[in-house]
Amino acid sequence: MGSDLRGRTADESAVHTAEFIVSSARLGELYECSALLSRTRARAGEIVDEAHALLAEAERDGDVERVLHVRDQLEQARAAYHKILVAYATLCDRITDERRAILRAQVELGRRSGLSGAA
Description:
Blueprint: H1 10-61, H2 64-112
Helix pairs in contact: 1-2
C-alpha cells in the first residue's frame, strides 16, 4: 500500500522535506547562474572599457572612419552590458524570492509543529 502524501500526518513532514530539497536545489542552481552572470557582467564591463580606450585612441589619431566604427561598437557593447545587468538584477530578485519562500515554508512548518520560532 502506498502512503497518502497529502494527509496531515507524519507523511506531511515528508512532503515538506521533499519541497525543501527541491527549493534548495533550485536555489543552488540560481546561485550557479548568478556566479556565471557575474563573471559575464565583469567581462562585458571590460569590453566596454576597452571600446572606450579604442575610441579615445581613434579620436586622438583623428581617424574619422575608425571613430565612427568604434563608436558603433561601443554602443553595441553598452547595450549588451545593459542586457546583462538587467538579467543579473532579475536573477538576484529571483534568488531573493526563492529564499523568502523557503523561510516562509520553514516558519509555517514550525508553527504547525508547535514551535515558537525562538531559539
